[in-house]
Amino acid sequence: MPYHLDFDPINRILRARFMGRVTDDDLRDVYRFGQDNVGRFDPLSGITDFSEATAVAFAPQTMRELARTKPIMPDPSRPVIFVAPASDLFGMARMFELESAEARPNLHVVRTAEDAYRLLNVSDPHFAPV
Fold first, then answer.
1. Is the separation of the CB atoms in 35 and 1 below 8 Å?
2. Consecutive sets of 10 residues in the chain, 130 residues long: mean pLDDT of each?
3. Distance (Å, whole) CA 8 – CA 37
């Protein structure tokens, strides 16, 4: 599977980590999982981590489409962070951020997971698969 979903119950962070080649279907699958299961976890924040992605095989239109859908995080005050170290992924994540700024005012795009944890004021996350 090109992605893993996990949750840190101590800090209440729901995280999706993409690996390898990331496709339109992968993005939609993860988004659908988030929408269907966010209530089960009641996360205080969410991270979408592209650190281990090696190829962008999804269309910019898919990012725009997802940006226009209902946010996964029901409370817009709860932070959502995209970790995108590669320039192409960073650009796509920024496009998502700009397209959805009104619905997701607490969305951030950073280059490293450490930057994400720093934004969340978390020093030692404890993720387990979901």
1. no
2. 93 97 96 94 97 93 95 95 95 95 97 98 96
3. 14
